[in-house]
Amino acid sequence: MSDVVAAAVEGGDLDRLVRLVDGLCGSREWDQVVRLRDRCRQALQRGLQLWPAAEYAEYRLALDAPGEYAGPVVREGAGRFALGPLWEVAASTHPWEDLDRHLPAGPMRAMAAHERVIRGEDLSMADGIDPSILEVPLRLESWEPGYPPAVYRPDKADFPTPPAADLAPVALPPPGPLFDDEPSIEALYDLGRGWVEQSNGACRAVGAVGGALEVITHFGYERVRVGRVTAATALAWMAWSAASGGAYGRRSGTPSGRFAAWWAAAQLTGLEWPPEPGELGEAIDGLEWHLWEPRGLVGGWGLHLAAADPIDGIAWAMAATDTYREDDPNRPAPDD
After folding, report:
1. Whole-number Cα distances in Å, 177 to 208, 209, 314
2. Percent of residues, the chain, with pLDDT higher than 70
3. Domain residue spans in the chain?
């Protein structure tokens, strides 16, 4: 096998190298996958651009190999062009006990641990996880949603959305007066920031006196579709948006999305950071949450969210969207 790999490397045959990775993974020859990865990296010094094969080998190690092979590839800078961050890939298919002793210390270890939390593990008593990386609990709270986890496969990945809301057409009233609440508005904008800064998207957030409809009107529509949702559903959608890379951006992962959702919820409810979990859960239940969308919205990525405080008579709304560029040859057809 080493001769076959050497021949593929010297010939600069990327397709053959990818097929070799698939075959080695199928036969569970993990040491050979590591050697193939190393040979491809060494070839870069001789001008052979075989980094896609090396990256694919690491992706498959993270996805399919035992923890002793998956853990070491989870490191800063690895998987730059993979379908998702390698800590999320590895944690999607390995319980914490399989990864724990094989993950190097540092931020990537903490992110992998939080991914296992997303998937239902309680790691609040686990050792060696830096609590400053994501200041959210290492367990899901009873009031949190089930955040839809990423699903990674050898050749593709799926990032499911939370359940859709029942939306009904509504005629919007006159807008309420805008108010300046920079921390809350910035926290909502952060939920779509990645689509703006790394992709082809747009995002806007505002706050206004009144209820959800009075703030949605500030987006320039006369009629929209609106549906009331639970705080848990709103949190799931906020996390999904902040985790996604959209059309062209780098995926940050569901744990980062969960952190962004907690941060936004704390800002809207006026709680100091980090909030006491039970207090945050009670506070967001006191807000009225809505999902909405403009008429005629088709395809792409989107989060249209509104939250109203019925006691103080104020509300916030955001609209974040992303889609493929019109001139992108890989742009899916409308029916895709």
Report:
1. 5, 5, 10
2. 99
3. 2-157, 163-322
In this structure, what DSSP letter does residue 133 have? Answer: S
Residue 315, strand partner residues: 208, 308
Residues 6+ apart with CB under 8 A from 15: none
Write the CB contacts of 262 (distance below 8 Å, at least 6 apart in sequence). 136, 235, 275, 280
Phi and psi angles of residue 43, each rounded to the nearest 5 degrees, phi first? -65, -25
| Lookup result for tokens 């950071």 | 273
3-class DSSP string for 155-216: CCEECCCCCCCCCEEEECCCCCCECCCHHHHHHHHHCCHHHHHHCCCEEEEEEEECCHHHHH
Residues 82 and 85: their CA atoms lie apart, in Å, by: 7
pTM over 0.90: yes
CA distance 224 to 204: 16
Bridge partners, residue 168, by sequence: 226
169 contact partners, CB below 8 Å, separation of at least 6: 223, 224, 225, 295
CA distances from 319 to 195, 222, 249 (A): 12, 15, 18
Summarize pLDDT for 7-47 with one digit per residue, the tens: 888 888 999 999 999 999 999 999 999 999 999 999 888 88
Q: Report whether 121 contacts 96 (CB < 8 A).
A: yes
DSSP assignment letter at 332:
P
